[in-house]
Amino acid sequence: MEYFAFQFHITDQCDQRCEHCYIFAEDNNICLKEMELEDVEKVITNCVDMCTRMERLPYFYITGGDPILHQNFWDIAKLLKERNIPFGILGNPFHLNDETCARLAQHGCKKYQLSIDGMEKTHDFIRKPGSFATTLAKIPVLKKAGIDVAIMTTVSGTNIDEMEDIVDLVVEHEADIFAFARYCPTSFEKETHIEPLEYRNLLDRLWQKFETYQDGPTTFNLKDHLWNLYLYEKGLYQIHEGLEQDKIHDGCNCANCHMTILPDGAVYACRRMESNIGNVLSQSIYDLYHGKEMEAYRQYDKFEKCAKCELLNFCRGCPAVAYGYTHDMYAPDPQCWKEID
User: Fold this and answer.
1) Which residues pair with 151 in a beta bridge?
2) Span 27-74, pLDDT tens digits
3) What is the distance, to the nearest Å, from the Cα of residue 42 to the centroid of all Cα atoms in its chain?
4) Partners of 113 in the beta sheet?
């Protein structure tokens, strides 16, 4: 049985004010939200009901803000443990120690995602002073507790020249997983642009780097769907004959097998762009997934460029990045280098 993933933002509380954060990017004094424990329990029940009806298994990515800062964090972890629901955490490194990590593992935490957004000077500028060193120091602490460590990078024009060094660093510290996604501009004034061929060149350089470390301790998750285009051009990604032509087989998970829930109960098709489709505290999330608001994000023939490409059902780039540049998720992916007649 396949998993259905819920990215569950239980609190806006956070120790950092990152340059690319969706919460604080435009207003560091924003009123912070946090979901009450009884509402968290309602959300979990709602999501489990949806998965039961769809014959899927629920998997939660608990995040925020920093989810550990939620006043009832351990009660929430207990709720998941009691239902035998596996979960991962997307969080900060600052509150991790041997005791906390062991407790996370006991409650069923399988993976903890930390961020490295450049070498020390760049990373600490984007996040906060001391964040870089603290993040690296917590990798062995998590691994000691039996929790897989994922390192995530948000790539932009600010750190594109440091990406290979980041890969070296992650492998040196024996992180279990490494992935990166592109920066989504939060306003037209805050773009840190990468040109399409410049981005393809980055993928080429990193692919060579990944091959160098293929027998190492780190798994490289090809999160950005333009990897599919890159590997397709290299003959390493195959489109198998006989697949249903009107079915999505790979690429962006928006409106497919992933939903986001915010601290006020708002449900988003994708957290990386404005995509509110309802509220999980007052509506069935099963109905939201199958409703007309979500269907608006499944109109694949509307993709201006992708709809003309043989990889439509296998790639679609990143609609959220397109939205960040244009406020239209169906606009061409600004880093896609493929020429379409």
Assistant:
1) 114, 178
2) 555 667 899 999 999 999 999 999 999 999 999 999 988 999 999 999
3) 24
4) 90, 150
CA nearest 321: which of 183, 180, 190, 204? 183
SS3 277: strand
Structure tokens at 261: 């829930």
pTM of the model: 0.92
Tokens found for residue 218: 């780190």
Amino acid at 120: E
CA separation, residue 287 to residues 49, 76, 96, 275, 333 (Å): 11, 24, 38, 16, 30
H/E segment holding residue 259 = strand 258-261
Alpha-carbon distance 167 to 218, whole Å? Answer: 9
Give the C-alpha distances (Å, rounded to integers) separating 29 from 14, 19, 69, 125. Answer: 12, 14, 18, 19
d(CA 273, CA 185): 9
DSSP codes joined into one string, 93-126: STT--HHHHHHHHHTTEEEEEEE--SSHHHHHHH
Q: How far apart are CA 140 and CA 135, in angstroms?
A: 10
The span from the CA of 135 to the CA of 151, in Å, is 9
Q: What is the tens place of the pLDDT at every residue in 78-132?
A: 999 999 999 999 999 999 999 999 999 999 999 999 999 999 999 999 888 999 9
